[in-house]
Amino acid sequence: MVKSMYLTPEEEAMYDGEEGSVVKKSMEILVALGDIYGAKRMVNISSAQISGVSYKTIGDAGLEYLEEFAATGVKVKVPSTLNPAGIDLDQWQEMAFPEDFAQKQQRIIDAYQQMGISTTCTCTPYLVGNVPTVGSHIAWSESSAVCYANSVLGARTNREGGPGALAAAICGKTAEYGYHLDEDRRANYLIELETSLNGSDYGALGYFVGKIVGSGVPYFRLQSIPTVNDLKSLGAALASSGAVALFHVEKTTPEYKDAFNDLDKNDIETITVDRQTINKNKDILSTTANKPDLICLGCPHASLEEIKSITELLNGHKLNIPLWVCTSISVKAAADRMGYTRIIENAGGKVVCDTCMVVAPIEDLGFQVIGVDSAKAANYIPSMCGLDVVYGDLEKLIKRK
């Protein structure tokens, strides 16, 4: 294999197989990616977030690939976390997930665990301890987490594929190109808001802008002050309808002051967004006028603050239809202690861990229409699950007695 990147003696040793066949294969993947994108060197990473976890998405071929790696005894070199799996690892039987699916899913988790990867199974690793510092290089592969890490935390990562992120975790390195470089973190779109935003407006905005800018870097000039949960929703929508990995929000995100450095103003395209545009895209995100037979919240996985908001709506009430609140096992533990889980369960809902409505085989459980407050989920469920969606604010989705 011919390479053009500069490698340090340590990297050369990995590339030449001195640390074993899996490290060699992983370094070959990283070098190949670096050569494709014109990287000059590798950089050390501080953490990894690895996708390719749900059996629904990787199948038997992915399972075999991971078990072959794990069987060699290879270990990751940096703290690494996992994307959501296809089941709640503790409650899968209670939730009627197919047994054969669950068994293969557990084998995938076991393989990752053998490699020293934390089996957190969440798309919000920044809520469970994987929190990179501003300017640090990481290798993350979940699109909404990538967007959050780059934009809100100010870390540096490309939109890695699952194998690339695993290779980076095994080597502790990634190729320096794309969003690892200052020049590729500049904005090339200015998004001017003519209306204030609230709740599901942020997802609708991200869905609309993502379709226009593709893999561009938008800079938002908002009329309202977003919370971190609003930024999470905005980034997830941008990353799903487009391929956005970085956005800036004026007076909010850490790099907004440098977003237009060294850029010609003629290279900046301005997009104006009014209330009519927001409402139109909220309507587009719903694929049916039928009533949902399941409400799924937590895409990306719900924070403790979001779970608290749900309990404030449910406390003392009973639900007319099933409710899943998807989150990580770590956030659920906090929700348990705060009494939030009990309130949700007393209302007839369930706090679901490790998985979500997109990567779980939800289409096999008898549901037809899923109600969501996530533009990412609304965008993916029809294609990945074959089900209809209703998109809207939490207050309108939850039907109470």
Order of helices and strands: HHEEHEHEHHEEHEHEEHEHEHHEEHEH
How far apart the termini lie comes to 65 Å
Query: What is the H level of CATH, i.e. the homologous superfamily of the largest domain?
Result: Aconitase, domain 3
Instruction: Examine the coordinates and then state which fold CATH places here, giving the name of the CATH topology of the largest domain.
Output: Aconitase, domain 3
**How is the largest sheet built, in terms of strand order?**
12-11-10-13-14
CATH class of the largest domain: Alpha Beta
- State the helicity in percent bands: 25-40%
Q: What is the count of β-strands?
A: 14
Number of helical stretches of at least 4 residues: 14
Overall description:
Helices cover 39% and strands 13% of the residues. By secondary structure, it is α/β, with parallel strands linked by helices. The chain folds into three domains: 9-182, Aconitase, domain 3 (2-Layer Sandwich); 186-283, no CATH class; 287-397, Aconitase, domain 3 (2-Layer Sandwich), CATH 3.30.499.10. The strands form four sheets. Strands 12-11-10-13-14 form a five-stranded parallel sheet. Strands 8-7-6-9 form a four-stranded parallel sheet. Helix 10 links the parallel strand 10 (294-297) and strand 11 (323-327). Helix 3 packs across helix 4. The chain is globular. It starts with 8 loop residues before the first helix and ends with a helix. The model has no long low-confidence stretch (mean pLDDT 95).
